[in-house]
Design a protein that fits this description.
Chain lengths: 332, 332
């Protein structure tokens, strides 16, 4: 019999909690027999949702937590004070080894702080990066770091490159992933102080496939698989992906409704267009792992629906079975 | 009689030099009687191009320059050594007051370095920012700074905010332009060290309309008119705008050709789509001014065609007539 992968899911986090969270969790256990889900949060609310579905009851368990950390709360304070919140309770289960992973659509700040303070870093890891997958022309790339650590140092970026390579190779399945550092020009002498210092260090790494600088313009075209950057820049990239996409789609739709001729055309292209745009939507890939922790923490988008929650949970199986943390430890 | 606005145009700079550059210059003088153009570069080449067109000969003059600065050359060295290059010759004319502005699609590095070393900064300006207009949902916004000065200090960003406000109000015509600082969250306590230090300084500025932090996600939606950021981040924003747009358009087109039904639809929506996408193309706005210099230097895209060159030249008229540099001096 295969080992169960135990995932704690924060039933109270995100814009669509608890409905979509519980639904996603049920879909995950229904899809794969090797998944066990703990749902943390208010028992009555979770029970109410669970009643809607059919699922193997022996692989879903509610762990009551009375409190909820709100998005607007200062994260450090929230993690310290709300001991009985769905996030703190869930992370403690990972820390104690009762679960392999924790998935939440709740407060980013609280998840990042909790990951470090409760779950804790792998020995040698200086900072745990948040690493979402973003869509590219023909696939996906890992954007690392994306919000966990602003004003990073060169040594942090080198660790991001190594952890990102392990993740892309063994979770996403890209052989010998190409690693690039985000820069404002392709030449080695270009960049800000951080990039200039980091570049030679990455070049010296024998265990990654470093291809040099990548310009932001080339990221969507898919020039590399692991996109290394400092968190402020990573956050700008992630958010702008969303923003440019949304505005452009809005304009395309608006433009197509401008004349009768194009209105008819719009009706005909609509299904194909919808399919295309879905393939360029970052949220479909589930959550972003917070790498380098003693356990796995996955932050999914605040607006996540059941599909993303399911994908986030399923991703934890690959993470455990491929022994990602052991592989990260070997590289440090 | 109205004063002529004298613009030096680098006829040798960019991917489409000299053909498109000369063509754009001719279109500018044919469009507006108040424009005088000097074309710097190899006389024979420029004459050959000019022969193709009809235009008022008394408002176009060739200034021969034997050398050309290539994009790959180290900028400081190129500006110092190639005294007879189209860039150095043109910038010296602005410095000596023989011309009001210099427009080039050539090496960004050389233009930025030349602007500072040859044209020189307005007294009090610490760093001259490069400030392109980028498209938003219903208009444009000024992205300042975008490539001139990486690792900027808070005082630089405050100057960018002031100069950008003057430009948006008096060149683009936006009353009381909203100024935002690029950040990774909307709250004042968020951000990296630079943003945290700059935020209160911007809040104190009585002469700008500071609206606080803007997240990259909201930039394309047009939440502010002047987008203040450090050059590395600005460069990432500008390039990613291009990259996401290009990839998304590629995918939309590809998606529409996937079935017969959508192929027919694609034919019908094509004209409307083309119009829409044009309105979201950053290059249509002509070049980006390098602000804060004793004169105006405009960097247009390396791939500029006649239209962008013409727009870059026309933009110089507004800049001079609105006395932008005098207004900037008053704010320092």
């Amino acid at each position: 019999m295969q080992d169960l992968v135990k995932v704690v899911v924060d039933a109270m986090g995100g814009d669509n909690a608890p409905e979509e969270i519980v639904k996603g969790a049920v879909e995950a256990v229904n899809r794969q027999e090797d998944i066990f889900v703990y749902l943390t949060g208010r028992k009555a609310d979770i029970e109410g949702e669970l009643r809607k579905y059919t699922f193997p009851k022996e692989r879903v368990e509610i762990v009551h937590a009375e409190e909820v950390i709100e998005t607007a709360e200062p994260p450090v304070m929230a993690i310290r004070k709300k001991k009985d919140s769905s996030i703190v309770v869930g992370m403690n289960m990972v820390k104690r080894g009762e679960a392999d992973a924790f998935v939440s659509s709740g407060s980013s700040g609280a998840i990042l702080v909790g990951g470090q303070l409760i779950v804790g870093r792998i020995k040698g890891i200086e900072r745990p990066p948040l690493a979402p997958l973003i869509p590219t022309k023909d696939g996906v790339a890992l954007l690392i770091d994306c919000g966990a650590n602003v004003d990073a140092r060169p040594s942090h970026l080198v660790q991001f490159a190594k952890m990102g390579s392990v993740y892309m190779e063994h979770v996403v399945g890209v052989k010998n992933p190409r690693v690039g550092i985000v820069n404002i020009g392709a030449e080695e002498e270009k960049g800000n102080a951080l990039v200039k210092e980091t570049f030679p260090l990455l070049k010296e790494c024998g265990d990654i496939n470093f291809i040099g600088s990548v310009e932001a313009r080339d990221i969507p075209a898919g020039v590399c698989d692991v996109i290394v950057c400092e968190a402020f820049v990573g956050n700008v990239i992630l958010k702008l992906y969303e923003g440019v996409g949304a505005t452009l789609i809005h304009k395309v739709k608006e433009g197509m409704l401008g004349s009768l001729r194009s209105k008819i055309g719009a009706l005909l292209v609509k299904p194909a267009l919808k399919e295309t745009l879905k393939s360029f939507d970052a949220s479909q890939y589930g959550g972003a792992p917070l790498l380098g922790l003693n356990g796995l923490v996955v932050k999914s988008h605040g607006s996540s629906k059941a599909l993303e929650i399911k994908n986030s949970i399923v991703q934890c199986v690959q993470f455990k079975q491929q022994k990602i943390n052991e592989k990260i430890k070997e590289k440090m």
